[in-house]
Design goal:
alpha/beta, 8-stranded mixed β-sheet, 4-stranded antiparallel β-sheet
Length: 310
């Protein structure tokens, strides 16, 4: 799927398929022919209902799953198949993941300082103890924690503080790409805003790119530059945040946007909910192809559907 960008992509996903074989008769097609690109310093968001394949795509990119088909290129390296030791070292240092559950992703037996500095211990074992500690303290302050939190165990921190520690651990090696897998969904709304502001501030300073996976479209509207809409493993529509929110094309995208709550009672009374049921919609995702709407806005559909929707 072509992108309207002149600079070179940091990450390119082409025709990604991820199947899980249950038994001889049944295979789950979690991701079906997904293609997109992420550029340096931008935030690309993947949205869609639970089970649409968002987390599976992230786990395929970071090589927790071996892709069934398709190619994944990161820093001009094909990481979808076997890679060399040098490429694996580069991948581990330049791509990191922020997990959804900060409690489960932090070792309860290790202090926060130890968890955050684990990447430095592996990839910068030649650093002195003072240099290592200075770097950890710098990252703690950058994500809104204090040096006192370094000696704490995860159970001694709040949910928001644990997630800040998770961000610090992911950012400690200064990666070029962060995969944020619903990293704010388990937090209170006020804490979500704080975490997103921390991520935006770090991005402005380091030009780190984000693959931001979330359900909260209001937060996606705030943090993302471009958005991809997933349903049943298919990437149905992509475009800039402004394009998708102001002029959605696919019926599923329209239904998602119509579900965003509003704080204005007057607007809430006027708003019309758009229902979408794939089984009765008459749409076949396997038959569609990507068609350019304008700018970088693309929608996956047949020619007749495109004429009808546009």
């Amino acid at each position: 799927m072509a992108e309207d960008k002149k600079e070179k992509p940091l990450l390119e996903v082409e025709g990604l398929k991820q199947y899980f074989k249950i038994n001889k008769r049944h295979t789950i097609k979690a991701v079906e022919d997904v293609s997109f690109a992420i550029y340096p310093g931008e935030t690309f968001a993947l949205v869609g209902e639970s089970g649409s394949g968002k987390s599976t795509i992230a786990r395929s990119i970071i090589r927790l799953y071996k892709p069934t088909a398709g190619t994944i290129r990161f820093l001009d390296m094909d990481i979808s198949s076997r890679i060399s030791r040098r490429e694996n070292h580069l991948l581990c240092t330049q791509m990191q993941m922020i997990f959804q559950n900060p409690t489960a992703s932090l070792n309860p037996r290790k202090r926060i300082e130890t968890s955050i500095g684990e990447g430095l211990d592996i990839h910068h074992s030649d650093w002195s103890k003072n240099r290592r500690r200075e770097k950890i303290m710098e990252m703690l302050i950058k994500v809104g924690l204090s040096s006192e939190h370094a000696a704490c165990y995860p159970y001694q921190l709040s949910g928001g503080q644990r997630q800040r520690a998770g961000i610090a651990r992911a950012m400690i090696l200064q990666p070029k790409l962060i995969l944020a897998d619903e990293c704010i969904s388990a937090l209170d709304v006020s804490i979500q805003a704080q975490i997103v502001n921390v991520m935006k501030a770090i991005q402005q300073e380091t030009q780190t790119a984000y693959l931001f996976i979330a359900h909260d479209l209001s937060m996606v509207n705030y943090i993302s530059d471009r958005i991809g809409v997933l349903h049943r493993g298919h990437l149905l529509e992509t475009g800039t945040t402004k394009e998708l929110f102001s002029h959605p094309i696919h019926p599923y995208t329209k239904s998602l946007l119509s579900a965003i709550p509003t704080l204005n009672p007057a607007e809430g009374k006027k708003r019309m909910s758009v229902s979408y049921d794939y089984s009765t919609s008459g749409i076949n995702y396997d038959e569609g192809e990507y068609r350019l709407v304008g700018g970088s806005h693309m929608v996956k559909c047949t020619e007749n559907e495109f004429k009808r929707w546009c």
